[in-house]
Amino acid sequence: MSKKLNLNEMIQFVLDKANHPSGDRRMENIVKTAINTAYMNFARVDCDIGEFEIAPPISMITVLPDDFLTALQLFHDSLGSLNDYQYRVSNGSLVVAKHIATYDDVSGMTLIYGKKPELLEDEDDEPEINEEYHMALCYYALTEITEDQSYRYKYEDILGSVPLFEPIINNNLVTEYVVNDR
Description:
Layout: H1 7-17, H2 25-43, E1 49-54, E2 61-63, E3 68-76, E4 80-81, E5 87-90, E6 93-96, H3 98-101, E7 109-115, H4 134-145, H5 150-160, E8 164-170, E9 173-180
Antiparallel strand pairs: 1-7, 2-6, 3-4, 3-7, 5-6, 8-9
Helix pairs in contact: 1-2, 1-4, 2-4, 4-5
């Protein structure tokens, strides 16, 4: 059974399991950082979706939105869905192959991407991921402050159980997403 947890509850759970007293700010910051690291890992596979329109003419390098986390699909108005080898993301920018950028002067592109959630900062902040994954964030933090590798296995098992969503493309448009179990 899953339970929705806020940042304070996660930190307290981790400190209790690791037998660390509350009130040690240094340790609490280490735990908080670990929880946020795990949160971003989960957000890559359980995230809100955004669209980013790239108007013509297309540049080979385009700066991505501030809330960009991961590329899900890139569509070219004339060429359709692009393959991973036709573009890459590097240092907050989308880099497309020269033959894609110079294909014509009237086509734009649309990037479907996973949005980066806000980091958990305040005690009552809750992760914007499915609550069944909240405990995994605690397990990850426990791997950072203890030597008990069983927490690492629990974390990896839960992360590996998240279903992936793949687009169904009809006439170069995403019409729906379907679950693809790993």
